Amino acid sequence: MSHVTKDLTNHDDEQLLVYSISYLLGNLFSRYSKYIILDRALPDVRDGLKPVQRRVLYAMHDLDLTFDKPYKKSARVVGEVIGKYHPHGDAPVYGAVVRMAQPWKSYLPLVDMQGNKGSIDGDSPAAMRYTELRLSATAHLLLQDLKKDVVDFIPNFDSSEKEPVVLPSYFPNLLVNGATGIAVGMATNMPPHNLHEVLDAIIFRINNPESTLSEIMKNGFKGPDFPTGGIIQGISGIKSAYRTGKGRIAIRSKTTVEIKEKAKKEQRIIIDEIPFEVLKHDLVKKIDDVRVLNKIHGIKEVRDETDREGLRIVIDLTSDGNADEILNYLFKNTNLQVYYNLNLVAIANHKPQVLSLVKLLDFYIGHQVEVITRKSKYELKQLTQRLEIIEGLVIALKDIDQVVKLIRHSKNKSEAQANLVAKFDLTNRQSEAIVSLRLYRLSAADVDALVSEKEAIKKEIIKLKKILHDRKTLNQNLIEHFTKLKAIYPAKRKSVISGEIAEIVIDEKATLKHSELFVTVSYDGWIKTINRKILAQGTEDYKEFGRKPTDIIVSQGMINNLDNLLLLTSKGNYIIIPGHKLEENKWKDVGTHINTIVKLESSEKVIASAVVNNFEHDDIYVVLVTQLGLIKRVSLKELATTRFNRTIRCMSLALGDKLVSASFTNGKEWIVLSTKDGFTLKYLESNVNILGLGAKGIKSSKLGFEDKVVGAATGNSSDIYAVVTSAGHVKRINFSSLEQTVRTTKGQRLLKQPKKKGVTLVASFKANDNDRVNLLTGKEKWHLLEATKIPVSRTSEGAGKAVAESIISADKICLWDLRNKNQADSATLSLDQTQEYQNDEQK
């Protein structure tokens, strides 16, 4: 079926063919992709070269720029390549030339460049008008015997020249130098290998054509060997790549740790090998960025001390720097270690193929067999013709007088040849050689030389015929050649292969410099962290304390950056934030919202927080109380998790319910809670079951119609309980003054008939003399009140002290301190304590 949908003929008799867009796109794209794959991006499995590389080398060979000849300007070579074989831009051609000359990218460079050829830092090479080129000795092995009909030639782009389809490649370039390229729908990433290991594998495969991958590797083929060295991890990835054509390895920089100054016990890390294709300058910069941004403690200075002696990067550590942890961090977060995906794709049999190691070896050996066969045929033909001529010359020289007489009496060259053929029974080629012979060659010495040459040629012909007719002889010829290469090119392995890819485990705490932080957590989720050193410079004024106008402070206190900040929210979730993850702020800043760390719902609020460095306590519990009258206890051990910076459920809540209180206890405390209507209950903590994180809880009290719990507290008989009314009153009562009640009752009333005046309780909490109370008034003003300014009264005495016209919400500023204790303590920080920290810092 034709893809032409319509024929149109205009008045100029020009035909317009109209095709469907789907056909055109598919057809044209397939042509484009085929061109990119076969003629641009992928190497040939036989010589390991992309077309542009092959054309560069052939053009240099054509210019006689061999390794033993003078250099020529790069611009001259690039012009030759573009003009004759590769009609593309000069920049990509010069780029291909430069890459083949860079020893940190090629195991055995194919081009010998004089001048600036760039650097491992990523510096650009000098312009082509300044640099000079010639072929390396290695490249000579690729191009050798081109004139002996060992490979096919095809016309160039304009049919004015001929170029080779593939090079003879007397050394395994693809495996030794590797290749990279991105085509359409496929790519290749062939790593370099050690020359001796590759040659040994080829020899082993020639001797054992049925050998397996396992046998080849046991014979000494270890894996990739990169020109920049490094430590390779991932033996299974190497085996997978050699078996299937695809695999993954890790390349780690070679590092050593040495003592810098014994007196100060300062260490330094020395890097003298880096991963393949990693730019040294970028690596040094990334390591220094880690130091500047203080992402890890212990790095004092980073220096690049690379010189003519070799690569050397020095990382000076502080006296308390942990070299192992710093290295682990750098391996994971910089290019000190990279992952390399092996993708063994090459053009084989005129199409791209994913190849195993065995196939790579077989294709190369097959190419060498063909090259040697064609070379032997060519040489046999030349020697046979030479032998024919020598035999004719010997016949002629035996009767030289008669030969001279025949030639002298002939009218011309043709007649002379005919007379010689008739007289001595010679061939046309022999007669041609005789008539072309110069008289000085008629000496006796030359006759003896011809006889000797004849014998040598006969021996060589026998040898060539044996190569052509006996595969064992041909194989032995190949083995001898590869054995000579091993002697010419000593190749000590540069990369070390070390087991499987090691999991990098970073103990972040071990890499941190211990520091004390002053942290503030607000009800709306704002976290402000101030370094103790900055705080100790002077007592700050709370009037300048940055906050949102309608927000109140829930917690405030000191935390070590090695500790964890535990937050509990109104939606029954908890969050654990490592102290070193807290962003430092200034006193006047509002802080950092928790949503930058973990996403909360818009209505989700922070109701409590604690400092924890170890969750494995047997006698610390969390008492959770909800607004609709549910309560539960959870062991602190249940909150242990490795899922930092995420919300985790600690209590399942019914629709419309929320947490109003979270307290930490030792398992033997009183629980006191109050409701909006003014009822208060007090009962032992043991009356509340210990439940799992997913449980809803049990009843905390008997709530009246539209009544709800506004707050709760835990404590001992010596503690003080506070309630706050909507009318702006705050009242404190001793725990011991409160009646013990049954959990399922309404409890005792602290406010007499509050509904008559529309007064309700808005909050309740523990407020001892060293605590501070945080109030948000009806005018949305923040009011900070020392607990000692609120008198302690009996349960029946009035509504308490008036502190504002009305109060919307209130809470005690409390940062629970659960560090290294078997009981839970609440911690607050006053301005006086801030002054104490200042004095400590001065000391």
Task: Please describe what this structure looks like.
By secondary structure, the chain is an alpha+beta fold. The protein folds into 4 domains: 187 residues, Topoisomerase II, domain 5; 82 residues, Gyrase A, domain 2 (2-Layer Sandwich), CATH 3.30.1360.40; 123 residues, Topoisomerase, domain 3 (Orthogonal Bundle); 329 residues, DNA gyrase/topoisomerase IV, subunit A, C-terminal (Neuraminidase), CATH 2.120.10. The chain has a 6-stranded mixed beta sheet, with no helix packed on it. Strands 16-11-10-19 form a 4-stranded mixed beta sheet. A 4-stranded antiparallel beta sheet has the order 12-13-15-14, with helices on one face. It is rod-shaped and about 155 Å long. The C terminus is likely disordered. This is DNA topoisomerase (ATP-hydrolyzing). GO terms for molecular function: ATP binding; DNA binding; DNA negative supercoiling activity. It catalyses: ATP-dependent breakage, passage and rejoining of double-stranded DNA. One of its GO terms (biological process) is DNA topological change. Belongs to the type II topoisomerase GyrA/ParC subunit family.
